[in-house]
Structure formats: structure tokens, C-alpha cells
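Re-run with default settings, no changes from the original entry. Doing this only to confirm the output is reproducible before filing.
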Amino acid sequence: MADNTNLQLAVVGGGPGGYAAAFLAADLGGIFGGYLSPLLMKYFKVKLIPSRIAGIVLGAILMIGPGCIGLAASPYLAIALFCIGGFAHQMISALLNTLSADVFDPHEVATANGLTGTAAWTGGLSFSLVVGALATTIGYGPLFACLTLFDIIGATVVIALLRDAGKHSII
């Protein structure tokens, strides 16, 4: 059985403060995700779609932190890395949800968001089932590393799909 001592201590020993910090970090990530594109556009003169992509890439880079939870030397470090993950995940989520309104025509946005939601729900359910089945066998560390890998792959797919979209944007 894999050693999950620090993560288990973080979850159990962190108490309400650990949970509150994780949810607060996620909320802040959602807010920051909304403000990031306008800031990039204003101060760095980046166009709209490339600014959203830059935020998604930043979130994917931040997701490297939670990928290292298995290496955490203390429960507090594990909680901090988990908080970084919540922040980054919500930042990516906010930017992806907004991106659909930027890329699709107004009469297509609802369909695009519906398909995105369906894919996200299916992926979340599938990953939850995998975590439940594998956490006691291989531990949480490799599963958090997979989250990092998935976000980096996702950012790469966004870049590949929208590489030319920013060139045609007038904003």
C-alpha cells in the first residue's frame, strides 16, 4: 500500500481551517480568472483570445504544485499545494467558460457550453471513480500528478485549437 501519511494528515488534521483555505483559494481563483484577461489586455496589449489562452496556460503551470502533493514533507505543505490547485483549477474553469462566448457565434454559445458541461461532468465522474478505485492501491500522489498532466495536456489542446483564432480577433 502506498504511503499517504501527509495527505491523510492534511485532510484529517487540517480540520475546518484546511477545508476553508482550499475553498477560499478556489473562490479567489475564479475571481482572478475573470480579471486576468482584462489585465493582460490593458497592461500587455494582448488581444482577447490570446489573453484567455495565457491565463489557461498560467493555470496549467500552477497545477504543477498539486502534482507534487505526494512529495510534501508536511501536512501544511500538502494543504498549501492543494490550495494552489483549487485556485488554478477555478481560474482555468472561469477562463474556459468565458472563452466559449468569445469563440462561438451568439446563437452557438449555449450549445457549446452545454457540450462543454457534459464533457466536464463526464470527465469529473470518470476521474472520481478512478480515484476511488486507485487511491488505496497506488496512493494519492500519482493521482494528483495525473491532474497536473491532464491540465498541461488540456492547455496544449487549447493552444493547438485556438492558435489562429487570436490573429483574426479585432479586440
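Residues 5-168 form a domain with the Growth Hormone; Chain: A; fold (CATH 1.20.1250.20). The mean pLDDT is 87.
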